[in-house]
């Protein structure tokens, strides 16, 4: 039984992120589907006392320090030597090879001069897989906190999207490289079913050049399972606290080879249907999801493949609202959104100003999406990919007003890759173009306790976006690779906005009067270069550096905010610029000589201009630009095989003990004063130079100990520690308290077909705010984290 967490630089780089290679005594129980998956070139890797809490935290901290506190972990667990050899094999051209197999991804990550995250299937299935926190808890520099206990949450990488008080922006979401969100950059997570995906790739910051430097935070790519790595039938059920019930059934298969004319062909399919519901921790936080994910692939000969992806999602969620600090500690389960002093009969007909439950705040939508990926390896080491997609979403969203939308998105990518040598040196070139278009019709109505009253606005919004990129990686020597790249991003935003004046109480359903028609038009564009290198210091370690530019224009919903930074009303689109940054990143990743542990330590500096802030002008929530901000940080973590054969040993039946830790230091500061109009005058101080950019903790540590027994069961206590709290306003007068959370996960692979899973969360019943609201005028910053809770599930597959 090997203790090797990785066997090469490629293996080490493949482990960057949130997967520890656990030492498993039961690796001999590999089912035939895993072998078929490997033959397909995918290489699936197997895989209440305060003093006690503090001792555990201290132990993880010490181990993390001994590992240089670094965030790269080899994937999967200690495996048989033949498993490691599968990882090291070159991808084989066989019938049914997928468009991008995991071995190719690992080799690509090893060549990237950047810190990236690769989460493989085992890390997904050995969790609740309910939201991204379940799989990103141990990802340094990446923070996801659920707002309502479900999959809607605050997601940020390196603090580049801290204005996200609701929904998501700043990080491109993709499904196997195909854009998922709207063309203006807006997106959400409620349609993503983690159990339908084989792996998750996270590209931090401007390093996500192929996937769009038009998002400051980078990109997250969800790669679906296919017929090559799925069971013919798989069923999973999980339930637990706060009324959670979740179920999934899936099936995948590869056909026997057949002929299309004179061409050999192989087809496969994968389909997953899932649903979940929960009553929620807070009042008025009921959630429900129904999702279908499917893909069908066709391999033509040895050089062509086409795959179609389908997604259908129905999302229903009540929005409980945030609490003040006093409300949080008085009763974290109470409904939020209360507006002190509001008078519902006082003529404020433009907004429902009671609490979220009375106004029936919620978000309900259905989404249909189809994407097609065609790949043709037309010459040696060269291929083209053509990736079109289309999606439609209907949204009913009662909040301060009731918003209804019809969103049509169409776009795609044309990509060319050439991996032939250049001047006798290994070289890899990729170029591409990515057009996208959004047609959005948004209607706003008076919210009469969850129903639509008089119309207040009818907006037709069109967004056109195109990105052109190129990147080249050249091995100047066997140890030194230089990476050069650049992309150009251009987008236009055009609207026809009809504003209406409702009659007012008590006749809010009476016809509104057309007040004005506005037709705003604006555009954004930027060129983003990139330069980096990877130096292989030893066969199992690398030093890397990159300097790259990032760029992100505002969303349509931000441009439609009601008031400009100087206090003047918005007469079309908000006077809001795109945010930009230069990113400098230096890191060191690898494995020890004896391969008992792995690490990745990264230091970065983002020099940002025009960072978009969630601000308040004249007591109205809006957005404005900062002049200058600086995001400096350290991302560090690692994994270590502490021991094996503790209680059982011999005959290939060794138990094992492992540890993983992840630490993030986030030092986000304003470098210049930020001012705006407001009640206090035309030049009110919004943020002073030197203040912290609100929304993220400065110090965050996560750690886990894991014990694996050869009979297939495992135990894994873990913790999350936000050490210094989180500022929630730009003047730094309000702070969400620090917190320390203890959790416990366990599982048992009863047979190769049957698996049990159990988890306890927040075992000390700590009251805390995980996700926060930035700069709320009424100090309602706290989205309560779950109280003490338990979850359990079972999975069976044929």
Can you describe what's shown?
By secondary structure, the protein is mainly beta. The strands form seven sheets. It has a 22-stranded antiparallel beta barrel.
Please write out the topology.
Layout: H1 9-14, H2 32-39, H3 50-66, H4 81-88, H5 102-111, E1 116-119, H6 121-125, H7 133-136, E2 142-146, E3 153-157, E4 171-175, E5 178-179, E6 197-204, E7 218-224, E8 234-240, E9 244-254, E10 258-260, E11 263-278, E12 287-300, E13 304-318, H8 325-330, E14 362-379, E15 382-398, E16 401-418, E17 427-448, E18 451-475, E19 480-501, E20 513-518, E21 521-538, E22 541-552, H9 556-559, E23 579-591, E24 597-609, E25 612-617, E26 620-625, E27 628-644, E28 656-670, E29 674-678, E30 681-687, E31 699-708, E32 713-722, E33 726-727, E34 735-736, E35 739-749, E36 754-761, E37 769-772, E38 782-784, E39 789-797
Parallel strand pairs: 4-7
Antiparallel strand pairs: 1-6, 2-3, 4-5, 6-7, 8-9, 8-39, 9-11, 10-11, 11-12, 12-13, 13-14, 14-15, 15-16, 16-17, 17-18, 18-19, 19-20, 19-21, 21-22, 22-23, 23-24, 24-27, 25-26, 27-28, 28-31, 29-30, 31-32, 32-35, 33-34, 35-36, 36-39, 37-38
